Amino acid sequence: MSITLNSRRLGDPQSPHLLMAHGLFGSHENLMAAARILGEHYCIHLLDLRNHGQSPHCETMSYPEMADDVMQYMDEQGLSSTFVLGHSMGGKVMMQLALDHPERVAALVVADISPVTYPPHHNAILDGLKAMVLSDIGSRRDADAALSSFEPNPAVRQFLLKNLQRRDHDDDERTPTRYIWRLNLDAIVRSYDLLAEAPVFEVAYKGPTLFIKGGDSAYIQKKHQETIMTMFPKAQVRIMPGTNHWLHAEKPDLFSGIVRRFLDEL
């Protein structure tokens, strides 16, 4: 069953519309730097995918389900067809949307992910998040320290801990925790194998498609090219030098310029 997604809109509603979806453990806020730039030319819809950000929590989160969530959002907004962009997990969601409902996707932009099944590589992060005893967390510094033995990169820990939110004053005071998870950690753990999989594919999406690869990232590889072209025969690939997986945040001006040039040429 599809759900109503939380969203934030930027830009002129009279401009072409562009839906943007974040990656695993993220929220719409992660795409804000690029969205502000693109919002000068497009009406941007920043989405929180299910079990992330301020969107509802659900028991399951397969790519067909998440694509249906985006479809419902488009229906709610009266968007018959629009541009879509997704980063990482969000890229797979938007690929699934384009494959399932090609008539609703005017053009597809995928940031640093391929339509393939990846081996599990978030196990340490998931273990660290699950191991965190929220009743022992009195500050974000405590949370960072607890997570540091599972994830050595401070920037990654900062990204993950954006999901830690202080409890509202009207929450049940019998609960001793100061913090709660904004994301649905249990559902993500249960669905992780599904999230590692490729989008479900029957018929190719023949619309305009752009894959943007971080130059220093290994998510899009040469061996994926045949699969990309089979599923998205009009795909182009652009490489952003000097960027890793979070290319849209590392170089938002360059990222936004690549997206805009692609869409403006259609």
Polypeptide structure, described:
The structure is a single chain. The protein is an alpha/beta fold and 266 residues long. The chain has 10 helices and 9 strands. The chain has helices at residues 32-38, 63-77, 89-100, 123-131, 140-148, 154-160, 185-196, 225-231, 247-250, 252-264, and strands at 7-10, 17-21, 43-47, 82-87, 105-111, 164-166, 179-181, 209-214, 235-240. A 7-stranded mixed beta sheet has the order 1-3-2-4-5-8-9, with helices on both faces. Helix 3 links the parallel strand 4 and strand 5 (105-111). Helix 1 crosses helix 10 and helix 2 (63-77) crosses helix 3 (89-100). The longest helix is centred in the first third of the chain and has 15 residues, at 63-77. The model has no long low-confidence stretch (mean pLDDT 95).
Secondary structure topology:
Elements: E1 7-10, E2 17-21, H1 32-38, E3 43-47, H2 63-77, E4 82-87, H3 89-100, E5 105-111, H4 123-131, H5 140-148, H6 154-160, E6 164-166, E7 179-181, H7 185-196, E8 209-214, H8 225-231, E9 235-240, H9 247-250, H10 252-264
Parallel strand pairs: 2-3, 2-4, 4-5, 5-8, 8-9
Antiparallel strand pairs: 1-3, 6-7
Provide a compact summary of the structure.
The chain has 266 residues and is of the alpha/beta class.
